[in-house]
Amino acid sequence: MQRVCFTLQVKPGRLDEYRLRHREVWPDMLDALRRTGWTNYSLFLRSDGLLIGYLETPDFEAARAGMDLEPVNARWQSQMRDFFIDPGARDPDKQMLSIEEVFHLD
Amino acid sequence: MQRVCFTLQVKPGRLDEYRLRHREVWPDMLDALRRTGWTNYSLFLRSDGLLIGYLETPDFEAARAGMDLEPVNARWQSQMRDFFIDPGARDPDKQMLSIEEVFHLD
User: In chain B, N or C: fewer CB atoms in 10 Å?
Assistant: First the structure.
């Protein structure tokens, strides 16, 4: 199992709306994540808009590639894109760079 | 089980040394963490020095209070203090504020 951590930056004025949207993630989006191996997946939102993702998956590249093939993901990402600051205007899932793990204790 | 995420900021010139030190965390420090309920505990280090901690524990306040009573923790924190940027010059473990979880998928 890989432990994966990534960061994104939510726009300052959109934090409340981001929180609300994530209380009601579409069931078919959740199903797609489960089907493609995203487990123990949490998002944490710091008050300055730093968003931290953590998940466990057999293979992060495969999990991302799997979601790329899910039509619901394209719809979700297109709705999420405007919540984030990204100079490249990429879909949020394309901004998820895995951060180096420097310590682990089971 | 609580899922806890916190951030700290490592000084720009100290990243390599921080990595090295965390490959060789003292065994009695690891034992103290285990004894006080720090499980599935990872540290991730972004290239700009943002350090992200993730752990699972029955009660984060109890886990912190437990470590406060471990003599090895005082020695470890005093050695770690200088790695971090903190206006308050606190020990690193006193800077660990739990960040709001806005989404979770088992």
Answer: C
